[in-house]
Amino acid sequence: MKRWWIVLGVVAAIAVGGFLLFKNYWYYLPGLRQNLMDPIAPYQEITWQAGPAEAPQGARAPNIIVIVADDLGYNDISLHGGVAGGRVRTPNIDALALEGVQVDAGYAANATCSPSRAAIMTGRYAARFGFEFTSAPVEFARYLSHNDPGALRQPIFHEERVADVPPLETLGLPPEEITIAEHLRGAGYRTLHIGKWHLGEAPDLRPEAQGFDESLGFMAGAGMFMPRNDPDVVNAYLPFDPIDRFLWANLPYAVEYNGGQRFRPRGYLTDYFTEQAVSAINANRNRPFFMYLSYNAPHTPLQAARADYEALADIEDHTERVYGAMILALDRGVGRVMQALDRKSVV
């Protein structure tokens, strides 16, 4: 009988521990709760709505593509030095600067993610319309407040103010703000969003409600580039970083099209977004279009396609090598997009 009590005690302890661990990560997006409430469907093909079969005669408005890299450092491209002492080359990104215009006296409108994106979308400082901080779940802040024992000043989490925090999905770009997509759609452009959004998830905050005719990507602040156990991925997990621990525990490998059910993309996410951008360019080659191509590379979690990782065998540090491989994929994507534009003569 005593043995049974011991076994039951161990099982109960495991169950309680598992529940507490689950509860610690129980939040709306991008987490386990939504994974259970909104299952991720298998891969599905996307068919971008096609424009006219032939280009109209006469003058045509220029197409506009805004390409955003997430957390890419100034010195991470080879034009300005490059990762690992310049061993990671970025010829396609460099070409945009060498053949175009370099803005060397420009500054981000905000130091964090969501507000800086809001500024890109509107041309206004996000603080002017109350969007001063990055959208993040309450559980994320609570988790970080208990996981930095070596900090000089310990973070403070105000539990008494949690009830005053609006739901995560309502934190985003106010719908009354005029976005570049809304402005250009009013001027006759087809408007396309591909990649990361992070400007709100409520129906009136999503890309489709903020001026985009079509949207493919994810709404949260980050996403997995591949399933972590995929044989073609190389991971660089950062256990010392509480943010990284939280992301690896919660992020899905999923995208959605025009607000539909989330589904698994195909292959490495950076390459997938590039493939979709090329497809969208082909579909819209005979009409003016605006594309917001918002890569999430090289934002954490650090994951590289194995072929890109192996191409940088001369970089000894594993984390730096994964990071450099992520930038290789990003640069390759920029090159493929530019080739598609040149091939179709749609610029």
Describe what is shown at a glance.
This protein has helices spanning 2-24, 32-37, 91-98, 113-122, 138-144, 180-186, 242-250, 269-283, 306-310, 318-344, and strands spanning 64-68, 190-196, 214-218, 233-236, 256-257, 289-294, 302-305.
Descriptive overview:
The protein is of the alpha/beta class and 347 residues long. It has one domain: Alkaline Phosphatase, subunit A (3-Layer(aba) Sandwich), CATH 3.40.720. 34% of the residues lie in helices and 10% in strands. It has ten helices and seven strands. It has helices at residues 2-24, 32-37, 91-98, 113-122, 138-144, 180-186, 242-250, 269-283, 306-310, 318-344; strands spanning 64-68, 190-196, 214-218, 233-236, 256-257, 289-294, 302-305. The strands form two sheets. Strands 1-6-2-3-5 form a five-stranded mixed β-sheet, sandwiched between helices. The protein has a two-stranded antiparallel ribbon with strand order 4-7. The longest helix is centred in the last third of the chain and has 27 residues, at 318-344. The radius of gyration is 22 Å and the shape is globular. Mean pLDDT is 88; it is low at 4-34.
Set down the secondary structure blueprint:
Blueprint: H1 2-24, H2 32-37, E1 64-68, H3 91-98, H4 113-122, H5 138-144, H6 180-186, E2 190-196, E3 214-218, E4 233-236, H7 242-250, E5 256-257, H8 269-283, E6 289-294, E7 302-305, H9 306-310, H10 318-344
Helix pairs in contact: 8-10
- Topology, number of strands: 7
Q: What do the pLDDT scores average to?
A: 88
What's the assembly state of these chains?
Answer: single chain
Q: What order do the SSEs take from the amino end to the carboxyl end, as H and E?
A: HHEHHHHEEEHEHEEHH
Q: Which structural class do the helices and strands define?
A: alpha/beta
Helix share, percent: 25-40%
CATH class, please? Alpha Beta
Shape: globular
- Low-confidence blocks of residues: 4-34
The named CATH superfamily: Alkaline Phosphatase, subunit A
What is the count of helical runs? 10
CATH topology: Alkaline Phosphatase, subunit A
What is the C-alpha radius of gyration, as a whole number of Å? 22 Å
**CATH-defined architecture:** 3-Layer(aba) Sandwich
Distance between the termini: 79 Å
- Main beta sheet: strand number and arrangement? 5 strands, mixed
Sheet with most strands: strand arrangement: 1-6-2-3-5
Strand content: 5-15%
Number of domains: 1
